[in-house]
Write a structure and sequence with these properties.
With about 1000 residues, the chain is an all-alpha fold. It has 46 helices and four strands. A hairpin with a 2-residue loop joins strand 3 and strand 4 (about 905). The longest helix is centred in the middle third of the chain and has 32 residues, at about 415-445.
């Protein structure tokens, strides 16, 4: 009954909140607020939740905002926050209720004031018992969020709403000041244990301390952010009010308590962005407290507290709370502390300090570089002294891991496990330093505090060049050892055959628990045999799992480190850098499938994608070397991985159990998707202009011939050079390029499916020609061997019965065809550059000569496999290794190849729709080639002269050989292309109809 009453009152207030606030006077609102406060004191989470929801509605409607801090109709902040404070106390942090002291119980009841009960509540224990009892009767309960978490969240939202954080004003400052005053009193009471004379760790009221910070630490930053953005004149009084709370939080308690210290450091980490507004002495006090824990952590929960202190120190540097003198002092202090700390703590300290230095805008770039070099020198020396960095091999790694599995005990008693954990700590430190310094330099540039003018805007992430200057030497010093460790990990499976340790095969034959969770998910129920492994005598299951976990934990970190290295220009300055990368690519095909999937996702897909614009800044000979040493073996490795994943190669499913099938199927499908995306990126997929077909006829025969075109190309190159080094006007701002033709989008040289906004951008940027690819795709398109290997790999993936793989492969072949033609028209094919060595716009005769040789691949190399995929799609059930793989791909594949019914008719399947574009591009490009031939010979393009273009004739014969296709159908398609000056929906529809009638779904419809 009481729940129904509370729900009715809450619904009434929520529904009519604006009317109540607008029409009722203050004296009339007082009973409503008092009634809601009475319900909030009821010992039921559901009723408390309803009362808080109603209070939130009244507060959002505007009640209490333009009034003094204690209006007569609303309870005072001291009374209201007392109730909210009690609701935020976690029972898990309290001692057993039977051991709760009387002083503590009485104080909680005083904060609660008068519980809404018919009989007096003698103690907090009795209150908690009543709440537990009503919870057992609750019919709604946790399903509507009326549990402890939901009530606490509403308490925090209500305090934030009462402080009026969204719209700062004088009344909101007054409200926030009162909230800070009451919260500081509660914090002081908790730290002094209610004034208790007995001082011990157990007497500190950690649960109460956590409860107060819980609703204040979310409210205060919201108010401060709002004042910074909307009312800077109110920032000072808000900071002064908040300072009362900060000073109270920083006061030491009557005794040391790890839970209180941890919570204190969390609070200071959230307040890091605002400490820069206070006097530097405030930050100095915070740093001293943090360093005292870092240097001398407590015995109880010491590493966790030490790590929290280091993370808070990193936040201070990240948000600019540390001034230049403080950073210099920390640099000096680091020299004293480094030798006293464990490797893990030293690594975290280096990460925190390097991030702080990188984000210190008061220091110039040279000084920041010097300090960072000094900070990382300690861990660099430790890395060079490590056996793994000096010459790690797969045999060494297997032996060390097997030794760790053979000895029980922790890292102190187990030398093998200790060595593995030391390497893992060093790898984590390297990744943490580089990632946090990069993030700090980016944030520094974003807020406009950087003193460096050398900022790389080309990569879309400002501060990249600055972080390279800070960490270039660091990356170069670590890279040889890092790649040695990566090669050792990637060669583990090959080293098993020659491993001498008896535990080597036992160790790697099963997956680590965390490794299995990564593949199939943490909620997947593990089979009984996973927990009942048969091990040699004297070997414990715990030690084996610890070694496996340690090996797997290093794999993701290594993948992220490899991504950092290959994206760093400093790495490519190392002698034989491309050979080191090549060695990893060659080992990719030997990996376990989920290992290969990890490296493809984390390293190779980002590196080989279009967004890696730093590749274009490398010298031409370095680009060529990278493509030869990396891209070529990568293409071969991807094709071999496809064979392993599907039934075109030897099966790798060992036992056929449900777990083994799932462990194979999940990464196999993921690898197929990643691999075809990499292939698409290599041919230019992802560039908005990649599918636009060049129209050389206009410049060859309409716009004044080749001489005028070359002159326009030279002018465009000069304009691009001027744009790369823009002139600066007053105040250092860039001047507009007044010579730039902003009406170039009206040119019709660039053709595509439609005249869209993307084509306008291309016309503006390239003077009417499609934008050429950049980075690795540019090198691949110009290199005949790489280009052909990429086409063969895309054709291979057309046979994979997975919808997204098939879609990307078809799009990749379409873009490959377009880029092949566009490269010919720009004179970038190797045959066009034999005389000068540099690409030049070819004349009509030169273009025809080269195209006659290059375009012969289109009918058999692109058109034929696409038509075969349409006529006879791959069979998912026959190519899948297992039932698990079939279950993953079958439903999506059937939807992909099946023609749906619309208005009683079969419409083309998704496969046919996607296959239309590559077929259309092949025909359209061959038709352009044919038209140029006819124009050169002064003939009218018609079917009578198709014999002049052998590739076009071959393509027409292939179309005529399709099922359910007549000569009239093919003639309709060819006539539409002959008469068109640009592609539109008519040509695409004609091709789609031909493909649809050739598909199995259409044939089945005709038969039935």
């Amino acid at each position: 009954f009481h729940q129904q009453v509370a729900e009715l009152v809450s619904d009434y207030c929520v529904t009519n909140a604006s009317n109540l606030v607008w029409y009722l006077k203050a004296c009339d609102m007082a009973p409503i607020w008092n009634g809601l406060l009475h319900l909030a004191r009821y010992p039921s989470k559901t009723i408390q939740f309803d009362a808080l929801v109603a209070m939130m509605a009244l507060a959002k409607a505007g009640d209490c905002r333009d009034m003094p801090s204690a209006p007569p109709h609303r309870p005072s902040f001291e009374e209201l926050l007392g109730v909210l404070f009690v609701h935020c106390v976690k029972l898990d942090l309290l001692p057993p209720l039977a051991e709760l002291s009387k002083e503590r119980s009485d104080w909680l009841l005083r904060c609660l004031a008068r519980p809404a009960c018919t009989e007096p509540v003698p103690s907090y224990q009795a209150w908690a018992a009543l709440e537990a009892q009503t919870s057992s009767w609750d019919m709604r309960g946790e399903c509507e969020g009326a549990d402890f978490g939901g009530v606490k969240a509403k308490c925090v939202e209500l305090v934030r709403e009462l402080s009026n954080a969204a719209t700062p004003s004088s009344s909101s400052v007054s409200n926030f000041s009162e909230i800070s005053r009451v919260a500081s009193l509660l914090v002081g009471r908790a730290l002094t244990a209610g004034g208790s004379a007995a001082a011990s760790s157990a007497t500190i009221w950690a649960a109460e301390f956590d409860a107060v910070l819980g609703f204040f630490e979310r409210t205060a930053p919201a108010v401060l952010n709002s004042c910074q953005l909307k009312a800077p004149n109110l920032l000072k009084p808000v900071l002064e009010s908040a300072m009362i709370m900060i000073q109270q939080v920083m006061l030491p308690g009557v005794a040391f308590n790890s839970a209180v210290e941890y919570r204190r450091f969390e609070f200071l980490a959230l307040w890091a962005p605002f400490l820069k507004h206070y006097d530097p002495s405030v930050t100095s006090d915070v740093v001293k407290r943090l360093l005292s824990i870092v240097e001398d952590p407590p015995k109880e929960d010491g590493w966790r507290l030490q790590r929290r202190a280091l993370d808070t120190l990193g936040n201070l540097g990240k948000y600019g709370a540390l001034r230049a003198p403080q950073i210099e002092a920390l640099y000096t202090e680091f020299s004293r502390l480094a030798g006293k700390l464990s490797p893990a703590a030293r690594g975290k300290l280096v990460e925190a300090l390097t991030a702080a230095v990188a984000g210190a805008g008061e220091l110039d770039l040279a000084r920041r570089g010097t300090i960072i070099a000094g900070l990382v020198q300690e861990v660099t020396n430790a890395w060079h002294a490590c056996d793994f960095a000096q010459g790690c091999t797969s045999d060494l790694l297997v032996t060390t891991a097997a030794t760790a599995a053979a000895h029980p005990g922790g890292p102190q008693d187990n030398p093998g496990l200790g060595q593995l954990q030391n390497v893992r700590t060093l790898l984590t430190t390297f990744y943490g330093v580089v990632s946090k310094v990069s993030s700090a330099t980016f944030d520094l540039y974003k807020v406009g505090q950087s003193n460096s003018d050398n900022v790389d805007m080309e990569d879309g992430k400002p501060g990249v060049a600055e972080s390279e200057q800070l960490l270039g030497n660091f990356i170069q010093a670590w890279s040889p050892g890092l790649f040695a460790v990566a090669r050792a990990f990637m060669g583990l499976m090959g080293a098993l055959e020659t491993a001498s340790h008896p535990l080597a095969k036992v160790l790697l034959s099963k997956l680590a628990p965390t490794e299995l969770d990564t593949i199939v998910g943490a909620k997947f129920e593990r089979p009984p045999e996973f927990l009942k492994e048969v091990l040699p005598e004297g070997v414990t299951f715990k030690s084996v799992q610890a070694a496996r976990n340690c090996l797997w934990d290093m794999q993701p970190v290594l993948a992220q480190i490899m991504r950092i290295c290959v994206h760093s220009p400093s790495f490519w300055k190392i002698p034989k850098a491309s050979e080191q990368v090549k060695s990893l690519v060659l080992l990719l095909k030997q990996q376990k499938l989920h290992w290969a999937n990890l490296f493809l996702k984390e390293v190779w897909q980002p590196f080989l994608g279009l967004k890696n614009r730093q590749f274009s800044s490398l010298p031409d000979e370095v680009q060529t070397s990278i493509c030869h040493d990396v891209v070529q073996p990568m293409l071969d490795s991807l094709r071999q991985l496809r064979q392993r994943c599907w039934c075109t190669g030897p099966t790798v499913v060992p036992n056929g159990s449900e777990m083994d099938e799932l462990v194979h199927a999940t990464p196999a499908v993921s690898i197929s998707r990643l691999a075809v995306q990499i292939l698409g990126n290599l041919v230019g997929d992802g560039n908005h202009a990649a599918g636009l077909v060049a129209n050389p006829e206009r410049r060859l025969f309409i716009n004044g011939g080749i001489a005028v075109a070359k002159q326009q190309q030279q002018e465009q190159q000069q304009q691009q050079q001027q744009q790369q080094q823009p002139e600066k006007g007053r105040g250092g701002k860039r001047k507009k390029d007044r010579n730039k033709n902003r009406f170039a989008a009206l040119d019709e040289d660039a053709e595509g499916p439609s005249a869209s906004a993307k084509e306008s951008k291309v016309s503006i940027a390239q003077g009417g020609e499609p934008e050429p690819p950049i980075g690795i795709p540019a090198v691949v398109v110009r290199n005949r061997d790489l280009r052909e290997r990429a086409r063969e790999a895309l054709v291979d993936f057309l046979t994979v019965p997975e919808a997204s793989v098939s879609s990307v492969a078809l799009r990749g072949l379409s873009i490959w065809t377009v880029q092949l033609w566009n490269a010919l028209t720009r004179g970038e094919d190797p045959l066009s550059m034999t005389t000068t060595g540099k690409p030049e716009l070819p004349a009509a005769g030169e273009l025809l000569h080269v195209a006659g040789d290059v375009l012969r691949v289109l009918p058999r190399g692109v058109l034929k496999p696409v038509l075969e995929a349409v006529m006879q799609p791959p069979n998912a059930e026959s190519q899948a290794h297992s039932s698990a793989m079939t279950n993953i791909v079958l439903r999506g594949w059937n939807d992909w190849v099946t023609s749906p019914m619309q208005k009683g008719k079969r419409v083309p399947s998704n496969l046919v729709t996607e296959a239309t574009l590559p077929v259309l591009n092949v025909l359209w490009i061959l038709m352009k080639y044919f038209k140029i031939q006819c124009s050169q010979l002064k003939l009218r393009p018609s079917m009578d002269h198709v014999y002049l273009c052998a590739p076009l004739g071959e393509a027409i014969r292939m179309l005529k050989g399709l099922p359910n296709t007549t000569e009239q159908d093919v003639a309709t398609v060819i006539d539409a292309l002959l008469t068109a000056t640009y592609l539109d929906g008519d040509q695409k529809a004609a091709v789609r109809v031909v493909l649809h009638e050739a598909s199995p779904a259409f044939r089945e419809t005709q038969e039935t």
